[in-house]
Amino acid sequence: MSDVDFVRIQFDATQRLKLKFRHKDLRDAVLESGKAIGELYSDPFGGWPFLLKYAMRAYDLKVTTDKASEYIEIWVRQPDPNTNEKRTLDQLGQVLLEALNVSGFVSIKADEQSEAEAEGNATPEAVTR
């Protein structure tokens, strides 16, 4: 197991940020949104802004839910600053997934979610550790 408990993310050429989930961040995301962690992860529009907001909070960034949505917009609309290639919403989901998993508090497997969604059972559950 790695000692790294954060994931780096770069939205534009000027900011390279760290995403880190502490227990209180995950708790507050659940309380504010009214959704479980698995539900937050499976919802790019109603869940990811909360996850992004609280993952950035560990590094004292005062990010609102609206600002987190703006970061998501930047991710999708602007090319990767390192490769100049278009980025997808799915790629951002992979970054959030990695940040959730390295936190050590939850374990979500993307493969299992894809199978459940294909079968029409799109309710991924987070496994707490």
Question: Care to describe what's here?
Answer:
With 129 residues, this protein is mainly alpha-helical. The protein has one domain (7-128). It is built from 6 helices and 4 strands, in the order ββαααααβαβ. It has helices at 23-33, 37-41, 48-57, 65-77, 89-102, 110-118; strands at 7-10, 16-19, 106-107, 127-128. A two-stranded antiparallel ribbon has the order 1-2. A hairpin with a 5-residue loop joins β1 and β2. The longest helix is centred in the C-terminal third of the chain and has 14 residues, at 89-102.
**Percent in helix:** 40-55%
How would you describe the shape? Answer: globular
Number of helices: 6
- Report the structural category: mainly alpha
- Cα(first) to Cα(last) distance is 14 Å
Count of distinct structural domains: 1
β content, as a range?
A: 5-15%
**Secondary-structure element string:** EEHHHHHEHE
Radius of gyration: 14 Å
> Strand count, sense and closure of the main sheet?
2 strands, antiparallel
Count the beta strands: 4
Q: Could you name the ranges where pLDDT drops below 50 across 5 or more consecutive residues?
A: 114-124
Average residue pLDDT: 85
Strands of the widest sheet, in order across it, are 1-2
